[in-house]
User: Fold these one by one.
Assistant:
Number 1:
Amino acid sequence: MAQATTNILHVETPGILARIGNFMVQIAENNHRIRKVEFLNNLSDEELAARGIRREDIVHHVFSDMLHI
């Protein structure tokens, strides 16, 4: 006769990793640089060109003072 045992962890509240993950998402969503990237990404190619930015350079443009590339 075969016997099988399963252990099921029942969690009623979010675990610490889920809470940390949610906190990091909130930080990112509230970061002005992330909002700037989203704003620029929503512009048309023509609007970006008028600002002198290529679509593939948006992140570099927004984070240029932090990225030393």
Note: The radius of gyration is 22 Å.
Number 2:
Amino acid sequence: MLNSFLKNKFNKKKKLYTAVAIVATAVIFLSLIFARFNSLNLDSNFLLDVKKGDSVYSVSKTLSENGVIKSEIFFKFLSKLSAKSKIQRGKYEITPSDSVLSVIDKLANGKVIRYSVVVPEGLIINEVAEIFESAQICQASEFRDAAKNTEILQSYNLDFKSLEGFLYPDTYLIPSNFSAQDCVKYMVKTFFIKNPNLLELPPAQLYDSIILASIVEKEYKRAEEAAKIASVFYNRLEKNMRLQSCATVVYVLKEFYGKKPSRLYYNDLEIDNEFNTYRYRGLPPAPICSPGSVAIKAALDPDTTNYLYFVLKDPATGEHVFSDKFSDHRDAKLQYIK
């Protein structure tokens, strides 16, 4: 009876050891399989462009056809196993150090390539649109349409025809899956983040401030003179004088006539257009560009002066001569304008 007991105990241990050995062998085998198929066939970076409507199945086929992955079946199985079978559109950079699992994680979490987009101060919507098209983020026409989107305008209580003046000039890191509307929303959001006090202004006052800031943006050369230039325009408005800003004439020529003038002539100042402040009193009906922080601050907090005129003294330094009398201004023009 003792022998029978010992024999049974030995058989149980034998079965246990056998089972452990089978499991261990299976684990080792599966680990080897996982390691083999989880690695990529890459010597250099691969750009994957996932478009709207693409799925794990279509992406796995693309990766397989380009020799990036070793098995479509493994890619699809691992996507389902990790509960990451939903992917986001955009452009992805796959590197030799990536694995199938890390690629799946990138696609599921939208870890797309981000493009650096530099938008300088003083550009109009059309010019900003061209920058985004050159960066291959969206078509210029799509960007222009988005800048007139009423939903975006209304979200900031802006009852205007477009977002001209509200596309904040900055350096942006734009995800490659952003649409034109996403880009515009991002820029307007940045505008109000950088200038939170503007949200406290009534819409009409806000708009007038940005219109004036846009003119100051195109007129000043040196930051320390921006508030002084703003004071000139405020003083002229108070006296019901025409602003007579050359920048508004340049805007008319660019926006309405497709010209890029290197200098203005007297007949340009006579163009009959509501943006031409040589012909029409008051502010133009809309901003003439997207102003930066210096110009916006100057428009909100101008210097206190009696100046009514200014003329560029030195093109190299951007220094202006300011006058409160027309006779002094006339003398300055004769001296400095060649």
Note: Confidence is low (pLDDT under 50) at residues 26-32.
